[in-house]
Design a protein that fits this description.
alpha+beta, binds dioxothiomolybdenum(VI) ion, seven-stranded mixed beta sheet, single chain
Amino acid sequence: MPTTEKNATTSPIGRKTPRIDGPLKVSGKAMYASDFSFPGLLYAVPVEATIASGKIQKLDTAEAEKMPGVRAILHRANIGKIFRSVLVGNLDGIVDERRPPFEDDIIRYYGQYIALAVAGTFESAKAAADAVRATYTEQKPNVNLDLQPDNDPEVVETSHGPTKRLQSERGDPESAFASAPVKLDQTYVTPAETHNPIELQATTAMWDGSMLTIYEESQGIFNLQGVLAQMFGLPRENVRVITRFVGSGFGSKLWPWTHCALAVAAARQLGKPVKLVLSRKMMFQSAGHRPRTQQRVRLGATTEGKLVSLMHDYVNDLGMLDGYHENCGEATPFHYSVPNLRVKWGLARRNIGAPTAMRGPGAVPGLYATESAMNELADQLKLDLVRLRVLNEPKIDESLNIPFSSRHYLECLQLGAEKFGWSKRNPEIGAMKQDGLILGWGMAGCSWIAGRFPAHASVQLRDDGTARVASGTQDIGTGTYTILAQLVSDKTGVPLNKVEVVLGDTSLPAGPISGGSLVTGSMVPAVFAAADQAITSLLTVATTTPGSPFEKRKPSELAFQNGRVFVKADGPANGVPFADLLRRANVRMATGYGKSEGTLEDKKPKVSMHSFGCHFVEVIWQPAIARLRVSRVVTVIDGGRIINPLAGRNQIEGAVVMGIGMALLEHTVYDPQNGAPINSNLADYLMAVITDVPQLEVHFLDYPDKEINPLGARGIGEIGLAGMAAAITAAVHHATGVRVRELPVKIEDLLTSSILS
Ligand code: MOS
C-alpha cells in the first residue's frame, strides 16, 4: 500500500470551499435534463384525468389527432407494451407508483395520465392534449382526512419490500403507561406537503435500435436504469441514464415516475427523441408528495420527569395501490431512554397520487410528533424543555442494545441553549416582551440516520498534473461535485481547480442514490480507495520506467504526498511531481478503482449510527393583528466531521427555512369533491421564502465518527428540517398559549389565544 501522509495545510477537508460547479450554474452553462436538444426532437404532453375515482368510459382523440404538428395521441390501445417492474434486492427496482402508465382504465387519483399528445412543438402538443376528451363513470373519491389504519396484515409489502407494522417494542408499554404517575396522550397531524424544486421533472428519451438513452433529473440514476430496463424488457446495459445537474429534488426525484415511461414508450413508437416536461400542476398530482400523517403519542413519566413508557402509533395516507410507508417511527426507539416502548404503524389508502420520500422522510413528521409530546410533557411537569431531555439521555441505543457510534446530543443542547440565551427564558405564557410584542421561545431535538450505501468510484492522475474522479452518483444541489473534488485533492495534493469531477451517468462506476443524506458518507471510502489504487499504479510507473529517478527502487520505498513522489527515507524535499513521471513513461493516466460496502443491509450492526442536533427558536407574536413571525433560530448539529463547512451550513440553513414552511405554511389541499390538489401552483402553495427567513445561526460540533468512514463524515442534508416544526410550535405555545397539534399553524388557530389585546 502506498503511503499517503496528509498535509494539514494543503488539504481542503474541513475548509470552506465554494462550489466548483458554481460558475457553470450562474452563467447558465450547466445543462439540466430538459436543456438537451436533439435533431428531430418531439415534445410530449400528458393528458390528466379530471376525476379521482372511476373508470374511463370513452377517450375521444379524433379532434386532437387532426391538429397541426401532432404526430400521435398515444393511449392504452396504441402505446405498446410497458411491463411492470419489481424490486431487485433492497436497493434496486424501487418505485413508489408501480403500475405502468395506461395499464388499465381505472382512475385512482386526480391527474393520473390517461393519454399522451406528441407533436413537433411543445405548444402543439399542449393544445392537442387539451383537445382530448374523456368521459368517465365516476365515483366519489375518498380523500378523507381522518386517518385510521386499513386492515393490513402485520407485514406489509411497501415500496422497499416487506415491512413489519410493529416497528419496535420493549418492556410492557401498556401497563407502564397505565401506572405512570404523569401521562400524556396526544395526537399530532402533519398535512400532505408537495416538493417544489425549482427544476420541474423532465425526461428526454431516445432509442438507437435496442439501446435507450435517457436524460432525466434523477436522484438515483442506477435505480432508474434498472426500472426502465424491466419496464421495456431490455438488458440493463442497454439503458443509459444521464443526469448532469439537478435543480433540487427533496426526494421527489429519487424514484421513477410514470411520465418517464411514457416518454420512453412514445420515443419507441415514433422513432424520434421525445421530451416530456411536467407542469407545476402535474408535480402536485403524479410525482410524489409527503403524505399526511396522524400520530398518537403516549408518554408516561415519573413526577421527576423520567420516562417510563413511550407509545407511538402512526398512520400515513397513500394512493390506492402500492405501499408507501412514511417511517415516522425512525428515531423514536433510540432517541430517549425509556424501558417500555412500542412503535407501530398503519396505512390509510386514499384517492391521491402516490406519496414518496420528502426531505427527512419519516423522521421529520415523526420527530414533530414525539418532540412536541416531550415539550408538552415538560410543561405538564413544570420542567424546563431542555432539562427533560437531559434527564432522559440514553447511554446506548436501547432498541438494539448497542452503543452509538458517536452521539453528542447533550452537548448540542448545551451549546444551543448557551448560544440562544435559553437561561433567560421565563416559562410563563406571554411573559416575555420586546418592543411591545410578545416573544415565544421553544426548542426541540432532532436526529437522522447515518450509514453508507454501496459506492464505486474511479480516480485518475493525469500527465498534465490534473486529476479526474468519476462516479455514477448525482449532485442534487447539495455540493457533491465539490466534495468529491475535495476528497481527491486531499488524497493527491492536486489543487481543487485541477480536479475534474464527473457524475450523473450510468456508464460511470455505480454510485449511490442522492438520498438519505448518505452520498458524502458513502463516497469517502470509495474515492479514497480509488485514489490509493491510482497512487499504487503511479508508483509502479515510477519504479519501472527506464530513466525514472526512482527506477531502481521498490514501490514500498516510495511515498506520495502533495502531488509528489519521493523516497520515504529521504523525505519529501526532493519529490518529483507525478505528471513528470507519467510524461517520462508516456503514460497518460494512472487509474484506480475503488468501492465501499454499504452498511444499511447489516442486520446485526455493532454500533448505532445517527446524527443528532437541536433547534432553539424565537417567534414574535403581535396579538393586535394576530401576526406571527419566526425571528431567530439557533441550530446545533452533531453530524460528524464537516468536509465543507460552507456547503454544510447552507444545507442546514435551507432545511431550517423549510422547517419554517412546514410549521407555518406548507400544506397540499385535496378538494373533497373531486380529489384534485387545489393549491397546485406556486401562488397558492405557500412555502417559506426569503422574507420569512429570520436570523439563523448554525453550529457544527464537528466530532469525526470513525465508524462511518476514515474522515468521520456523516450526512447533513436532511437533519436540519427534523425537529424544527416542534420547536416552532413550542415557541408559538409559549407566546400565545395555543397548542397547535395539526400543522401548519394557521392564524385561525391563534385567534383563540388569551394573549390577544
Ligand atoms: Mo431524502 S427525501 O431521504 O433524499
